[in-house]
Amino acid sequence: MNEPTESEPAQTATETAEAGPSDREVILECHKLSRDFQSGEIKLHVLRSVDFQLYEGEMASIVGSSGAGKSTLLHLLGLLDTPTAGEVIYRGRNLTKLGEEAAAKVRNREFGFVFQSFHLLPDFTALENVLMPARIGAGSMKWMREATKLKQRAADLLDRVGLGARQSHVPSRLSGGERQRVALARALINEPAVVFCDEPTGNLDSKTADEIFGLIEQFNKELGKTFLIVTHDDHIAQRAQRHLHMVDGVFVDRPE
Q1: Cα–Cα distance for residue pair 72/230, rounded to 1 Å
Q2: What is the DSSP string of 43-67?
Q3: CA dist 70 to 105, 129, 154, 205, Å?
Q4: Residue 21: phi, psi to the nearest 5?
Q5: Which end of the chain has fewer CB within 10 Å, C or N?
């Protein structure tokens, strides 16, 4: 991978793809964001001085092959990893220097996550899985006061994703598509401002993938939630309001 030089700066999302909605505020952005990994004596430049802006209420996608750096970017923006260099700004607040406790609060309260492998707790029911971020974020005293309300919200979300009759089922009794529906409901339980989806349809057949993405589109339009979706599936990526291509840790005009 060739590193950017001063005469050839790293390309940015706004330079290489249609700009975001001009009538919306920037909710999340990064400046000169880089992530290196050490493999023995070799340093891998997985993400290279990337600038990116995500607009409130939009659904944006990043497409690229495995190893392009798209999931690394998502993890950095979602505070699941720390950058080698650069800044992550959320609603004008620099998140890069947050301590782990403060970062965990932002992740829990402001962000939701949907992963390719679902990451459901196997011994908990669908309802309990959806509730988990709310229970963690509430703390013991708030949970005691608001448990009934939060349980009803979790049940309502499961109903909205078509699983109202299966909320007492553990993940092993659910299909792959049903597990991802639970994961999507879980991502929304704390009413986050931004939902990050890392290959949300990667483990699903085409019909089920279409259904899951339809739910994402529904929550984006009806609830105004901001979605950033990482995928290797160009068909899925094209359905977003704005789609970008990443190759070797930078945004490019088209996939190579």
Answers
A1: 10
A2: EEEEEEEEEEEEETT-EEEEE--TT
A3: 24, 27, 30, 22
A4: -60, 125
A5: C
pLDDT tens-digit series, residues 43-99:
989 999 999 999 999 999 999 988 899 999 999 999 999 999 999 999 999 999 899
- The structural domains of the chain, ordered by start, are 13-252 (3.40.50.300)
| Phi, then psi, of 194 in degrees rounded to 5 | -130, 135
Sole residue written with tokens 């005293």: 141
Is the pTM higher than 0.85? yes
The tokens describing 214, both together, are: 């339809």
User: By the 8 A CB rule, do 39 and 59 touch?
Assistant: no
Phi, psi of 193, deg, nearest 5: -80, -35
